[in-house]
Amino acid sequence: MDDQVLRSLIKWPNVPDCYGWLALDRRGQWRMRDEFTQQNHLPGQVIHHAALNEFIIRNYACDEIGRYFFQNGPQRVFVTLDATPWIARIIPSETGSRLTNQCHQTMEPAAALSDEKGNIYIVGKVNEAIYSNKDNQQFLKNESQSIALLHDHDLEHFSELAKLREEACSFGGSWVWHDKTLPLDPIHSQEIAARFNFIAKPQP
């Protein structure tokens, strides 16, 4: 969290929250959604401005009930999640592949999940800022287990790492990451938010 953002919260503590205007899509892109976009259920315009993207990333956080937001100075802009709070990519490197989310964090996976639509989700630890009302309204850094949708461009790569068995509604089995065999379990897409304690569409 930027120092200037924290200072602005102290100076202007009662700025109203904003809902619906910012979204995180299934490919890890931030999208602006004006009133017309919201009313017509459109995806919104991808934010291409590099400095703005980095500002959002540095000030991306969640509250204690699982609502994710961008702290834009004194204003909290709640984020509509098209899938999950994190979107993961498999990034090749000279020392081996790594999993990176949209905030440039490397994730260490513990498992993966597969839903009825063929999506793959990575379960792993993320270092995130959590806003706490109980601790003098502070942002606390916490490494917690969360869920990241795997970018669809990486599904083929993932399939090369996996051994699959057919389940009732999806696929299960295992997959290998850095010489470790990890579980791949089925899940229904409607169960994900409750299981991993996030709210996809925050409301006032």
Give a verbal description of the structure:
The protein has 204 residues and is α+β, with helices and mostly antiparallel strands. It folds into two domains: 3-81, duf1285 like fold; 86-189, no CATH class. It is built from five helices and 14 strands. The chain has a five-stranded mixed barrel with strand order 7-8-9-10-11. The two termini are 23 Å apart. The model has no long low-confidence stretch (mean pLDDT 91).
Compact description:
By secondary structure, the chain is α+β, with helices and mostly antiparallel strands. The chain contains five helices and 14 strands.
Compute the number of structural domains.
Answer: 2
Rg, Cα atoms, Å: 18 Å
Report the β-strand fraction as a percent range: over 45%
- Overall mean pLDDT stands at 91
Task: Give the N-terminus to C-terminus distance in angstroms.
Answer: 23 Å
Multimeric organization: single chain
In DSSP terms (H or I, runs of 4 or more residues), the helix count works out at: 5
The overall strand count is 14
Name the poorly predicted regions.
none
Sequence of secondary-structure elements: HEEHEHEEEEEEEEHEEEH
**Strand count, sense and closure of the main sheet?**
5 strands, mixed, barrel
Which outline best applies? globular
Roughly what percent helix? Answer: 10-25%
Q: In which order are the strands of the major sheet placed?
A: 7-8-9-10-11
